[in-house]
Amino acid sequence: MWLLTKTEAYRPDKAFEARARVQYRYAVRRIDLSEFETTTRSGPATVRVADRTSRHEPPQSVEFGGVFMVPPGVTQGMLRSFRIGSLFGIPIKLDITFLLVLPLFAYLIGSQIGDVADILNTTLGAGIDIGYITSGVNPWLFGLAAALGLFVGVVLHELGHSLTAQRYGFPIDSITLWLFGGVASFTEMPEDWRQEFTIAVAGPIVSVLVGVGSFVLFTVAPVGLDGARFVLAYLAILNIALAAFNMLPAFPMDGGRVLRAFLARSRPYAQATQQAASVGKLLAVLMGLFGLFQLNIILIGIAFFVYIAASSEAQQVTMKAAFQDVTVADIMTPAGNLHTVSPETSVAELVQRMFSERHTGYPVIDASGFDDGRLVGLVTLSDAREIKPVERDAYTVEEIMTTDLQTISAGSDAMTAIERMREHDIGRLLVVERQSPTRTQTQPLGTDGSTESATELREPREGDDLVGLISRSDVMTAFDIVQKSGAVGLSQTQRAD
Question: Using only C-alpha atoms, what is the Rg of the chain?
Fold first, then answer.
């Protein structure tokens, strides 16, 4: 019932930032420093295709999910789900945590069934036979039925968001039930305030309709069906309460989305996101304190995810604004500035170089018989760690390097590179230009009549020229400078009037 965007946790190296010189539309144009800077070779290297198993060093990431709608990848590494079916073409999945929380909810409802029934009898005149529903195993059976009904309501809530988003052309990856309710995974989030407002309120509207429908069924159910009438009355109240709770302006909950939509009417999208996120984090702190005083673990958990999700989405939206119209070439480390190693270098020497030069990865260049050398692989600290320290003199870089490489064009959008690194779980991309079959000079991907686009991520081909490398260090150093300069959002025109 919340909207959450994806992001990865980056920690830019301050030593690199101090030496970086950047300028482009938002005060950023070029950055020549990354974990592979310092000139050691000039000119491009030719890519040689190889077929070894990849051992890319995985990026560190923090991704969050909850009772919300998120783009795919946000809950990667957090949710362990399996598909149980689909509705309207949207896969429905169950996370392992759902299997743990379902009996817990059933127990909590069953243990309080007498008190709840008494309240329903007093407020609604339900006429439920408390003696019947509290006898034997009935509390646990009706508690389980109510818990299942609650999660059905959550799925319908997420379907409200999802089907409305599909109406605007936003594909939905899946809906997953987990510890805190439901996660609707979006492939793209709306930036038009009208679309976001409509999508955000669709979920609570569905919850209200489910609550009203449950109450109508409760009123027409025969008096003798005490268990069914209890479950229906309970779900009627719970779904309406759920809709009200989600309309709190705690971004990225539904109410927070509505708040951002209204803010985005009169200010840039990134600025509206930052302001809505600030409100969301404040309410998350208050929610967490209330949960702490009430000893409510679920509320504390929700508050934690609201706070982290608000911070994550604010960073992601700000990054997207900062890198608007910025290409990979603007922030990559050029080929001439890359530290490289040869295939014959021993692993012991490699580790020593990593220590002395404070780098964790090197392109591997084979210069034998070639003027400019050719790229044959990439070696990282994680590759070196696979070899025991006492055996590192006996192994060479060629034996441990990664040769299953992924590339991107220098003309691709910077955000495309960021998304690809996350998508493929890699920390860096090789930047190549394709050697034209009709000319001697190189061309960016997609400019030689090929059907491949300039933003396509693909494996290198024989004859491609290495022109640089883009890493998360490059990206985050540039982003950190833009953010601290206060230039983000000053010139953007993302506001939809």
Answer: 27
Same-domain status, 27 and 53: yes
Q: Is residue 21 part of a domain?
A: yes
Q: Are residues 75 and 145 in the same domain?
A: yes
**Phi then psi for 431, rounded to 5 degrees?**
-105, 120
How many alpha carbons fall within 13 Å on the CB side of residue 247? 15
Phi and psi torsions of 181, nearest 5°: 125, -105
The number of residues making up the chain comes to 497
In a domain, 496, yes or no: no
Token pair of 187 as six digits: 């492939």
Domain presence at residue 490: no
Instruction: Kindly give the interhelix angle for 269-293 and 254-263, rounded to the nearest 10 degrees.
Output: 150
Q: Which two tokens stand for residue 157?
A: 């809530």
Using CA atoms of 395, 340, 457, 72 in order, give the dihedral in degrees to the nearest 10: 70
Q: What is the pLDDT of residue 79?
A: 55
Question: Residue 198: which domain range?
Answer: 68-322
DSSP at 402: B
Distance CA 321, CA 319 (A): 5
Q: What is the 3-state secondary structure (H, E, C) of 235-289?
A: HHHHHHHHHHHHCCCCCCEHHHHHHHHHHCCCCCHHHHHHHHHHHHHHHHHHHHH
Cα-based distances in Å from 454 to 47, 184, 325, 327, 448: 18, 31, 14, 11, 10
Residue (of 288, 290, 325) closest to 310 by Cα position: 288
Tokens 């883009």 identify what position?
Answer: 470
Nearest to 127 by CA among 225, 234, 217: 225
206 assigned to some structural domain: yes
Cβ 319 vs Cβ 418: under 8 Å = yes
Residue finishing a domain among 267, 290, 322: 322
pLDDT at site 471: 87
Query: How far is 333 from 252, CA to CA, in rounded Å?
Result: 35
The per-type count for the chain, helices as H runs and strands as E runs, is 16, 14
Residues of the chain with pLDDT under 70: 1-79, 368-372, 434-464, 486-497
The alpha carbon of residue 197 and the mean position of all alpha carbons in its chain are separated, in whole angstroms, by 21
Q: Are 433 and 464 in contact (CB under 8 A)?
A: yes
Terminal Cα distance for the chain, rounded: 27
Do the Cβ atoms of 137 and 145 come closer than 8 Å?
no
Chain centroid offset of residue 93 CA:
18
Is-contact 26 93, C-beta < 8 A? no
Helix (H) or strand (E) holding 361: strand 361-366
Question: What is d(CA 460, CA 404) in angstroms, rounded to the nearest whole number?
Answer: 9
CATH number where 39 lies: 3.10.580.10
User: Is residue 22 within 8 Å of 28, Cβ to Cβ?
Assistant: yes
**Judgement on whether residues 85 and 52 belong to the same structural domain of the protein:** no
